[in-house]
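pasting for the record
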Amino acid sequence: MTGPFGSPSSSGDPRYSAGAGGETADGRLVSPSAERNIPPITETLTGRLAGRTGRLLEIGSGTGQHAAHLALALPGITWIPSDPAERHRVSIAAWRMHLAPDNLRPPLALDATGDWAKDPAVAEAPLTAVFSANVIHIGPWAVAEGIIAGAARALAPDGLLIFYGPFMEGGAHTGEGNARFDASLKAQDPDWGIRDINELRTAAGQAFLDPDVIPMPSNNRMLVFQRAV
């Protein structure tokens, strides 16, 4: 099954298919899980990005709910959403029109497995942060590798690479629900699955400092890597 990064299609994306909240008349896709995640993500990100300015690139913005709400909560940050799926970019643009944050840019068509750091809209200046929520478990490992490699090139010297979602820790799941979810992902595509934090540490190598691991609701985690100076 093709995932959201191998092809610009959301047909296999478990974030926005089964159990999705539907579509509004103005073209916004609505994900109930994204809606639930907005308050805790907002609280944590506003704390971690306090005092920072500049541009943040979101990779895999999906419906655009996170992008629009987080841009409103972080007026000092220019939020750049992106997604390889055209239908998602339509939804992101609709959320941008609906909530109208001045600091939210139009969505980019970036593929996380490509050399996205060279995109002119990304390369115009170093980024203060790269953010990716609930993405790397619904694509091959090359997605995580591509995000890390691109962030190492695109971030400012003290820039942050931030992942949100379910993760394994030391080879173990953080809850039975995550174990079941992991099994269902692998049944859809054997290249999908919940990633281990240690795998990400290894992939980050010497380009990033050891991440802060922040517990989040529903056995999720936020991983905050700072680029090594």
